[in-house]
Amino acid sequence: xxxxxxxxxxxxxxxxxxxxxxxxxxxxxxxxxxxxxxxxxxxxxxxxxxxxxxxxxxxxxxxxxxxxxxxxxxxxxxxxxxxxxxxxxxxxxxxxxxxxxxxxxxxxxxxxxxxxxxxxxxxxxxxxxxxxxxxxxxxxxxxxxxxxxxxxxxxxxxxxxxxxxxxxxxxxxxxxxxxxxxxxxxxxxxxxxxxxxxxxxxxxxxxxxxxxxxxxxxxxxxxxxxxxxxxxxxxxxxxxxxxxxxxxxxxxxxxxxxxxxxxxxxxxxxxxxxxxxxxxxxxxxxxxxxxxxxxxxxxxxxxxxxxxxxxxxxxxxxxxxxxxxxxxx
Length: 329
Ligand code: ATP
Ligand code: LTN
Fold this sequence. Notes:
Elements: E1 7-12, H1 20-33, E2 38-43, H2 45-48, H3 55-72, E3 80-83, H4 89-100, H5 104-108, H6 111-117, H7 124-139, E4 144-146, H8 152-169, E5 177-179, H9 214-223, H10 240-253, H11 257-263, H12 269-291, H13 296-325
Parallel strand pairs: 1-2, 2-3, 4-5
Helix pairs in contact: 3-12, 4-7, 4-13, 7-8, 9-12, 10-12
The protein binds adenosine-5'-triphosphate and L-tryptophanamide.
L-tryptophanamide binds near residues 12, 137 and 154.
């Protein structure tokens, strides 16, 4: 049950392979926030279908993401894990926001859409993706939205849409705040430190998936691109690859970047990578031990229970919105 603590809401799409970038940038913050807040973590399947999905794979991925949340440390006794499509008010509120708040000019500014669409004849849903995300956040009267760097623009748009609605129809939505990590909000690709680690990357050398075999992860680290020179130093401009590996090392081993720089002062890239490979491999082993112990049935029950528990509140919020726009008689 929700108590009187503030509300945290975030979500991940059940598509591609969830990677250590998603864990470091998003999920690791969620684990911490559970201690102080009501936390709601969504599996955003309606966002995933903005691009083509194989139905059989999509339903497997939904279960997989829920298991990843739990094995990472989401406490299902306290926090909620639910599937977006189980609460249809998300889609309904998105439609209302489409009409009452969102403007074509807002959406034309979204860089993620431009990156993903390119010159292709993509779905209308992909264009409207940020409005559905705003509906997710506003429907649950969210205070804090912990995400990685690539979602900042979407959370900012959500704030704009909420304020615009409130201005026109009177106080309705709580204005959420963005929560972003100082380090680790944008983990870069292992094969190219100038593009972010991404679930939809074409090459698996770009990322370490949470479900990669530890031996595979070791290989990926040892093959990761490095910079010229041999110094192990955090310098994003001149040493983007080593800086990225340092951030991963620091956040998975709980040691500061300054401390790591000192340890590796007289060592070379190969020593550094071997140790990092060990840290990543241990992290995956611990994680996968828990992951492999969670059954599909357990996950299905958790998703169902959470959606049931959250629905009464989302009904109330949507009812209030419908009254404001004049469709509730
Ligand atoms: P895709 O690249 O296919 O869009 P993704 O890897 O960005 O997928 P999402 O489902 O879009 O994954 O993101 C889930 C969460 O992980 C979001 O909060 C997002 O900001 C965060 N995130 C994604 N990629 C990274 C990254 N490389 N570093 C840190 N956080 C990330
Ligand atoms: N667009 C986000 C996923 C997402 C989300 C949300 C995150 C959908 N709805 C609400 C925070 C709050 C992404 O990571 N791709």
